[in-house]
């Protein structure tokens, strides 16, 4: 009777642990799919602001980030399937594999997080340099392939009512104007469909776009950081629960059938 009672307690523990393991696996899968979606967006939509400001010439940072997110999201989806199958069927081999994958992914994500923190200033400098580069190239007829980039810059300036990265005087450096007094039409409230307009500088938006662009960048970094931290916390629970579930399954298999 005592042996049967102990066995029932272990079975109850297994059921509870399987339930919570599947709940956290579901959360883990949802976060992984968010990373996968973000990676697909960066990979296929090359006219978004992030891609525009991080993909030019030899600078293909957005491509590396999209591959990293696609790889992480796909690996998380595969790992979640392995963990779910191992938990439901109580297959020790799959549970061990699942826990090993989780530990490997945890270490990798920690390394990526440290790398992002170390490189943040460098990335911010690249961001500002690329904005200045776009402003310098704006309206150059020999760079017609850059028009989608200029249209995005126009949309930012017109919608946010800002002009240049820091202010309107930055446009004095642009050499593609018919005369030095011209400014982008998107820097004024009325925006005709051409690159430059002849208007006095005091009638343009006075605020630069840097604050808005930095806020947009920080918000996206914050979203990715939040997902990464959530993944790390969820993985801590998953690794712990998987280890406990494995121990109880072994204990349950030790008891003789009566």
Following the backbone from N to C, one meets helices and strands in this order, namely: HHEEHHHEEH
| Arrangement of strands in the largest sheet | 1-2
Radius of gyration: 27 Å
Q: Tell me the fraction of residues in β-strands, as a range.
A: under 5%
Assembly form of the protein? single chain
Please count the beta strands (DSSP E, at least 2 residues each): 4
- Which of globular, elongated, flat, extended, rod-shaped describes the shape? rod-shaped
* Count of alpha/pi helices: 6
Helix content: over 70%
Tell me the major beta sheet: 2 strands, antiparallel
- Structural class comes to mainly alpha
Overall pLDDT metric? 79
- State the end-to-end distance: 10 Å
Q: Show unreliable segments.
A: none
Notable features of this structure?
258 residues, mainly alpha, two-stranded antiparallel ribbon, membrane, disulfide bond
Write a brief caption for the model.
Disulfide bonds join 163-185. The chain is mainly alpha-helical and 258 residues long.
SSE inventory with pairings:
Elements: H1 2-44, H2 49-54, E1 55-56, E2 59-60, H3 61-89, H4 92-137, H5 147-160, E3 183-184, E4 196-197, H6 210-254
Antiparallel strand pairs: 1-2, 3-4
